[in-house]
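not sure who needs this but someone in the group chat was asking about Dihydroxy-acid dehydratase from Chitinophaga flava so here u go. i didnt clean anything up, its just raw.
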Amino acid sequence: MEQQILRSSQWFAREGKDGFIYRAWLKKQGIPAHELEGKPVIGICNTWSELTPCNSHFRELAESVKRGVIEAGGYPLEFPVMSLGETLIKPTAMLYRNLVSMDVEESVRANPLDGVVLLCGCDKTTPALVMGACSVNLPTIVVSGGAMLTGRHMGRSIGTSDIWRFSEELRSGKMSTEELAMAEAGMCRSDGHCAVMGTASTMACMVEALGLSLPQNAAIPAPDAARKVLAHLSGMEIVKMVRDNRRPSDILTREAFENAIMVNAAIGGSTNFVVHLLAIAGRIGVNVTLEDIDCWSTNIPLLANLQPSGLYFMEDLYYAGGLPAVMNALLPHLHKDCLTANSNTIGDNYRHAVSYNKEVVTSLETPFNNVSGIVVLKGNICEQGAVLKPSAATPRLMQHTGRAVVFEDIDDYKRRIDDPQLEVDENSVLVLKNVGPKGYPGMPEVGNMGLPAKLLAQGVTDMVRISDGRMSGTGFGTVVLHVSPEAAAGGTLAILQDGDMITIDVAGRTLNAAISPEEIARRKAAWQPSYPVAQRGYVQLYQQHVEQAHLGADLDFLKGSSGSDVARDSH
Ligand code: FES
């Protein structure tokens, strides 16, 4: 058999001074030269950090990957990249998604790697790592960290979606601070990311649906021994991927993205899926648009009964058969010929999967909800689009006209939302400006803004809310997000005023303010941007180069790929 020329041989097979330097400094870690001769060198890109609690078990997971790599005849080298913990990072982890993607891209390209294993967990760590790896396009496999065990509080199951309910119950006096403290103690019971179909689990499902991981990657709980087994098998698989020269560009075809959109609809995945999938497509060079997300979601019913769209938790999904059970049910719609990381097609991988619990994963014939997916709205408020998750919305509000109650920015909202004098009723439409990619750099998850306290006290549970921001994947409500162009970029959202009548028609896919084109033009002529502009550093770079949400909110100069060619040699 012909000997494969490995990329890493450009470092380790050299003679003279260069080879000496490359090899000698690895010997200081106890690695003899023969370990790197002719063996695929596999980078393990680790987002372990004590500042990212969802990824705090990744050192152990990396050890399992290493054992698999070694068993298959490769050599593993683990390296850190910046990690993004959703709960601790301010102002929002999304501000740094693109920065981490650069860290990953340059770390992978610059080093003597033949393939890479991405250890992903908390929300943004998955898209950031996948985006960076796509821009290099070396053989890549994803190992997700897995969700934590279901939380428990006063005899019932809880997950991150309950935080929003607890918060409103506390504000309306239905919950005491003591009960809230008890819930806090029972929420996070083990290693792993959020236990519901929030953004982290949505991302884990996305990579499996795209074919970038082994089957069952999405739902094995973090503390389950099967997660380590999957990590070991993924370590073995990446060595094979290098030998077969199977790269992300072979897997991430247009059809693979369509599959991911359909799967996201079937699981009731997070709206954050939109900006991340579009950004990944932009890196690998596949044309996917906001309209595609609506188009490929339509007619896909809700097949997984998971919070926040349903009742159950990620642990329950695994016991019901995991994502394979969902993908099996969805097979009549999916592109079955798409290639996956293990060299099988989607059809091969999922043809024999079954649901062990029809309460959690059902069939196309008996869906939990005929309405699912992500709807894209267009209109004079959002010429380039806005998104809404119908399975998390209140059906009667999906066709609604109401008077706008406008907040100029998040501080204005916080100042006035609970003011007893605020002119608002349950039919009003809450509008929040300047929380888009530029206006509040990183586009924070404030779109599902809390309702006015006086309406909560009256028992109001949902209202139409519109913003250029995002919503946590664990959030719910009739919430229009990602309005594009955003207010800070001079979109029509910027000139909405209290009292404007706004009509949302989800079935018709429209969102309009009853303002004439002449009045819009008059208000825009008088408009001045009013968001803070960063004067230095990464945030300045971000504000200058971030694209609008309908394009994935990547930095414009990061689109596409620089490939895996080694940069100019300095030795
Ligand atoms: Fe990390 Fe929810 S906070 S996944």
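also The longest strand covers residues 399-407. if thats useful
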